[in-house]
Design a protein that fits this description.
The protein has about 200 residues and is α+β, with helices and mostly antiparallel strands. It has 2 domains: about 100 residues, Immunoglobulin-like (Sandwich); about 70 residues, Carboxypeptidase-like, regulatory domain (Immunoglobulin-like, Sandwich), CATH 2.60.40. The chain contains 1 helix and 14 strands. The strands form 4 sheets. The chain has a 4-stranded antiparallel beta sheet. The protein has a 4-stranded antiparallel beta sheet with strand order 10-9-12-13, with no helix packed on it. The chain has a 3-stranded mixed beta sheet with strand order 4-1-7, with no helix packed on it. A hairpin with a 4-residue loop joins strand 5 and strand 6.
């Protein structure tokens, strides 16, 4: 029961964090567009007597990791190939990344009147799994691949990227236990470490 509550709270925390980042990007974009609109108001109107709200012609040059076979889209248009041209009104857009397994990720970008090229590194974040580490002792230390993660009191739940990991639990005055595990969709969600006092 405690594990499920902790896992739910952790998942809610990640969602809230992602939403905060998105809100910050949107606020930045709105401020930038507002400044652009102020500059445009200072300029004389176009020959037609109307404000210039025409789409902007932009070329995309996204840096996509060659090790990740992903495709990038803005709306329904694929923009994976460098030099893809788009006509878009100024605003905030989402670049949608799709990997070979159909997994998706979005990254925001801003287009204003001065935008001629879109250059941004696009990375599909690694798949992650929520796992729980259980120690037989209180006040333990958790290490992944030799790197200290944090102190915990017998149980800790965290999200871990897929892949081979060396998980180690230590406590002063006790034998440390290390296990090499492959984290993927089929791996366990809980790992128990029985640490004992030094002889």
């Amino acid at each position: 029961m405690k594990n499920k509550k902790t896992e739910k709270l952790l998942n809610i925390g990640w969602v809230v964090f992602a939403l905060l980042i998105l809100v910050l990007v949107l606020v930045f974009a709105i401020q930038r567009i507002s400044l652009t609109n102020q500059k445009n108001q200072e300029k004389p109107p176009t020959e037609s007597g109307k404000a210039d709200n025409n789409p902007v012609r932009v070329k995309t040059f996204f840096d996509i990791d060659a090790d990740q076979p992903i495709k990038a889209f803005i709306g329904e248009t694929e923009v994976t190939e460098p030099g893809t041209e788009l006509n878009l009104p100024p605003g905030v857009y989402m670049v949608r990344l799709v990997d070979e397994n159909g997994r998706e990720h979005i990254q925001p970008l801003v287009i204003d009147k001065e935008t001629k090229e879109l250059r941004q590194k696009l990375i599909m974040p690694p798949e992650r799994k929520t796992i729980t580490i259980v120690s037989s002792q209180e006040e333990s230390e958790l290490y992944f691949d030799g790197q200290f993660i944090q102190h915990f009191n017998q149980e800790i739940t965290l999200m871990v990227p897929f892949g081979k990991k060396e998980i180690e639990v230590r406590k002063k005055g006790y034998t440390s236990i290390s296990k090499t595990e492959v984290i993927d969709e089929n791996s366990p969600t809980e790992y128990l470490f029985e640490i004992k006092t030094l002889p």
